[in-house]
């Protein structure tokens, strides 16, 4: 079955620049040149929130992994962290000396990476927004920066026509990919963390292996590609282009699966939901659209299972994805007319319970990660103490 348009959101007063789903798919965030951030509810008849605070165009938005925060970057050089509820409270910090093009949370929700026209990539703590370090080898605007799924690497794409791969710990550039014939608008990691995909103004999408640093796939389009998003299974890639189309690429077969026409004028941004059953797109036409993926459900379940066993990403993330997928498949199966009401209610309450468990798991994952960080600090301190002790003993014996 082909992908189908599910919802259509109107409310922005200028081009949409960025879209992202929350973990539980109840909310969708979008940023726009109208300086506003909108939070749309995926439940029917629920009102949208318009968040006002940025003094200029909002270039990028992203939900935190837990869904409790939304980060936005703007032409006003600041980054804001919003609580996506009625109050819409936000904290703001001056992140760069020029337009902030990209914001991205690490998968543990602890760090934020930002990219800017000031040619730098910066990393911050989410808690208290403390500046950690800057990566500054690009010689032109940096359009996009992303953490790898395991948080060890950062990839950045720039108008200097390079994509740079950085080691987060040593803060060094490990590799530069220079084969693009134009500016690189967007880059992201494959869910397995083993490769990256990049979208360019030379009408191409390129997929590189980051272990061997070699080109794996190359797709030639007819228009500038503005944005891309990997399906959580890692088997599909969706792109948004200036010719107003969205394209779904089958990475296993290395071919174009679908071309979707929905926007009038350039399609500027696109993103799969965390479970992969939906994707959203935004355009210069001020519209936000939500599509149903409609990949074969059984096939999709298998895809997730095979992926789980074959990747190095930590297990918790995948159980989350799988649970979410399971709930959703249950909900979307056609209901037989003979089904009784109690059974449906039971399934809904089961879905709610699972969703609650997922939330709890996410909190646990974050807690564990904080504990791990503290443990590392303690170990380092201990090592320091022991070394000092050795020195004292040596000095005494000498």
From TrEMBL:
GO terms for cellular component: centriole; ciliary basal body. GO terms for biological process: cilium assembly; microtubule-based process; multicellular organismal-level homeostasis. WD repeats lie at residues 9-50, 51-82, 93-134, 135-176, 177-218, 225-259, 260-292. Keywords: Coiled coil, Repeat, WD repeat. InterPro entries: WD40/YVTN_repeat-like_dom_sf (IPR015943), WD40_PAC1 (IPR020472), WD40_repeat_CS (IPR019775), WD40_repeat_dom_sf (IPR036322), WD40_rpt (IPR001680), WDR55/POC1 (IPR050505). It comes from the Eukaryota. Belongs to the WD repeat POC1 family. May play an important role in centriole assembly and/or stability and ciliogenesis. PANTHER family: POC1 CENTRIOLAR PROTEIN HOMOLOG A, WD REPEAT-CONTAINING PROTEIN 55. This is POC1 centriolar protein homolog A. It comes from Sula dactylatra (Masked booby).
